């Protein structure tokens, strides 16, 4: 268990106000890390930070729109100033807009590209600059990007989302190569979460019903379970524990990897 101890580490979790991000922030704090929650949902983000702080963790909140360069500058500086360093980034913020290929709306697709791809890329950029030698934090670290099982399967009505999460995988692998070759001391990995019944996950179930693909949300969920060898949906803790592992010394020789946390659905 000592290898999973994150005491002394300083983490920034994007989209950390709720859902998977909140669970990841909780798990990092439970492992001993200090955590900065970054989110566009200011009141909810502060509430989540307050709950974690009440449990004894050192936790802060910073408003962060991952598509804005100036927000990243401020978020990284706030993390360093508040927590005393920065050596973990969990690039979790993302959106999913369901649409059949024949019904794709260009504006909505660009919005997903902006949040899921540009937001992830900017996070890696600012983490590298801060964590590398002579950076504002300068002690190396770990970046965990959140891709999706959608990057590895062909599920109807999520073509745009699948494309963005496939891009997260590519960003991860190229970023890991650059960070290694340039001596940044930063490991970069991603996870592919399966479907988790968060607000976002259950909205997807309703959306595919509206698209005429399933008779009910239960039928959509059951279809996913049937395609999952583990025989269940994912849980927030499943994803959060995988993030803690990849941030820890137990993963010290792992970089450029994509870890499926999907119950076998994407194999």
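^ structure tokens above, recovered residues below v
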């Amino acid at each position: 268990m000592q290898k999973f101890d994150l005491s002394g580490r300083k983490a920034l979790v994007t989209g950390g106000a709720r859902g998977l991000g909140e669970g990841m922030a909780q798990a990092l704090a439970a492992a001993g890390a200090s955590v900065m929650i970054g989110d566009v949902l200011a009141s909810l983000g502060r509430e989540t930070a307050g709950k974690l702080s009440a449990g004894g963790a050192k936790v802060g909140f910073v408003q962060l729109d991952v598509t804005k360069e100036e927000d990243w500058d401020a978020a990284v500086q706030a993390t360093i100033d508040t927590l005393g360093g920065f050596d973990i980034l969990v690039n979790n913020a993302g959106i999913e807009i369901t649409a059949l290929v024949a019904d794709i709306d260009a504006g909505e697709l660009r919005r997903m590209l902006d949040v899921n791809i540009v937001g992830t890329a900017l996070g890696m950029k600012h983490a590298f600059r801060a964590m590398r030698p002579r950076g504002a934090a300068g002690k190396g670290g770990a970046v965990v990007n959140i891709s999706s099982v959608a990057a590895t399967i062909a599920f109807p009505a999520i073509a745009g989302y699948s494309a963005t999460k496939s891009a997260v995988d590519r960003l991860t692998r190229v970023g890991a190569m650059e960070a290694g070759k340039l001596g940044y001391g930063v490991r970069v990995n991603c996870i592919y979460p399966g479907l988790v019944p968060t607000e976002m996950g259950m909205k997807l179930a309703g959306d595919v019903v509206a698209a005429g693909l399933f008779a009910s949300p239960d039928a959509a969920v059951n279809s996913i379970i049937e395609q999952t060898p583990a025989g269940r949906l994912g849980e927030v803790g499943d994803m959060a524990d995988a993030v803690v592992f990849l941030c820890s010394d137990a993963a010290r020789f792992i970089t450029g990897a994509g870890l499926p946390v999907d119950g076998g659905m994407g194999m």
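The first strand starts at residue 10 and ends at 14.
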